[in-house]
Write a structure and sequence with these properties.
The chain is mostly helical. Helix content is about 95%, strand content about 0%. It has 1 helix and no strands.
């Protein structure tokens, strides 16, 4: 195989890996952000009840 063919194959594998890695990071970030916002809301409600 020529160098160009190997480069194209390697680059396509690398690109697919980076795409799925970044997509997984993005999804987990959104999940964690939703979880943290729910946790903060619950904590603030608890603090308001204790202050009353």
């Amino acid at each position: 195989m020529s160098n160009l063919t190997l480069f194209i194959i390697g680059f396509s594998i690398f690109s697919a890996y980076m795409f799925f890695l970044l997509r997984m990071i993005w999804k987990q970030h959104n999940i964690q952000q939703k979880s943290d916002s729910n946790l903060l809301r619950i904590e603030s409600e608890d603090n308001n009840k204790k202050a009353s």
